[in-house]
Amino acid sequence: MPHPLATPALASLSRPPVSSILELAQLDSNSFRGESHTGVRRVYGGQTLGQSLLAAGRTIEHEHHPHSLHANFVHPGRSDLPVDYHVERVRDGASFTTRHVRAVQGGRTLLLATASFQRDEEGLRHQDIEPSPVPPLPEDLPHFQDSLTISEAAEANWLPPLMAGVGIEFRFPEEYPRLACRRGENGPPRQRAWIRTLEPLGDERLIHAAGFAYCSDLFLLSATLPPHARHIDTPGLQLASMNHAVWLHAPFRSDEWHLYEQHGYWMGGGRGISTGRLFDRKGTLVASTTQEGLLRFPL
C-alpha cells in the first residue's frame, strides 16, 4: 500500500527554484555567473547544462534559437559557490550561430560545451518514433512519493536528497526500475517519466530551452542499470556523467508536462550510454538526448 506519510515529510523540503537558477548575472559581454540555490553539496549536472545554454544564448543579438548542445563534464562542482560561464563567439552566420562555453568554479573547469543556434525556417518534416505504449496522463498519476509502499518509503533515503537537489516534478507511468533493482530484480534498460519544472518559467523561448537542458540530466544514465539489477545507490559504485548532448526539434515549454523516455542501450568497460526522447501530450517528438557516463562497480 502507498505510504501515507511520504508526502508531508517530503513536502517540507526546500526545492530549488529553476527560475532563479536560470537567472544569470552578466559580468561582461561574454561572461556570466550562475548560482545553485540548493541544499545539496554537489552541483546537479543539469544546472551547468542549462546555465551554459542560457549564457551562450545571451550573447546572440539576432533571432536565432538553440537547436543543439554538446557538453563534456570535466570536474564536479560545489553548490555553495557560484559558477562562471565564459562564452566564445565562434560563428555568427545568416542561418546558424555557434558558441563555445567554459564553466569555471574556483579556477577549475567544470564543463565544456558547444551550443548551436538556428534561424527558424520551414522544411520537410517526419518522425519515425512515438511513445509506446501510450501512457496514462500525468494528472491521472500519483506524485512519486505517494506511489511508494510503506517498505519502499522506509528505504528511500535517496529520495529526499534527490528532491532537494533538483527543481523538477516527475511522475512515472510504470514502476520506476530503481525500485525493482533494489529488490534484486532485473529488467529491460528502459524507463520513462512525465517531467516539468516545478514553477512557471515565463514566455522566453531561450529560457524554456535552458529549462529542458536543466531537466534532461534527470535519471538518464540510470537507464543502463536494470539489466544488471543494480541501482545508483549500490555500495561502491563510482558514478559520473561524462558527456551529454541535447537536440531541440521544436519550441516547447519546459514548465508543462512532457513524457521523457529513456533507453540505456549499451554498457561496458565501466561506461554506459543512454538516449532520451521527449514527447508532448500528442506524441510529437520535441527533443532528443544522449549521455555517456562512468558506471564503475566493485569487482
What's the topology here?
Elements: H1 6-11, H2 18-21, E1 25-28, E2 31-34, H3 45-57, E3 64-73, E4 83-92, E5 96-105, E6 108-119, H4 150-154, H5 159-165, E7 168-171, H6 177-182, E8 190-197, H7 205-215, E9 238-248, E10 258-268, E11 271-279, E12 285-296
Antiparallel strand pairs: 1-2, 2-4, 3-6, 3-9, 4-5, 5-6, 7-8, 8-10, 9-12, 10-11, 11-12
Structure, explained:
By secondary structure, the chain is an alpha+beta fold. The protein has a single domain, classed as Porin (Beta Barrel). It has helices at residues 6-11, 18-21, 45-57, 150-154, 159-165, 177-182, 205-215, and strands at 25-28, 31-34, 64-73, 83-92, 96-105, 108-119, 168-171, 190-197, 238-248, 258-268, 271-279, 285-296. Helix 3 packs antiparallel against helix 7 (205-215). Keywords: Hydrolase. This is Thioesterase family protein. Residues 160-294 form the Acyl-CoA thioesterase-like C-terminal domain.
Keywords:
single chain, 299 residues, alpha+beta, Porin, 12-stranded antiparallel beta sheet, 17% helix, Thioesterase family protein, Acyl_CoA_thio, Acyl-CoA_hotdog
CATH architecture: Beta Barrel
CATH-derived topology: Porin
Number of domains: 1
Weakly predicted, low-confidence segments = 1-8
Please estimate the helix content: 10-25%
Count of beta strands: 12
- Provide the CATH top-level class: Mainly Beta
Tally of helical runs: 7
Shape: globular
Radius of gyration: 19 Å
Order of helices and strands: HHEEHEEEEHHEHEHEEEE
- N→C terminal distance: 36 Å
CATH superfamily: Acyl-CoA thioesterase, double hotdog domain
Largest sheet strand order: 1-2-4-5-6-3-9-12-11-10-8-7
Instruction: Report the sheet-strand fraction.
Output: 35-45%
Average pLDDT over all residues: 94
The biggest beta sheet reads: 12 strands, antiparallel
Q: Indicate the structural class.
A: alpha+beta
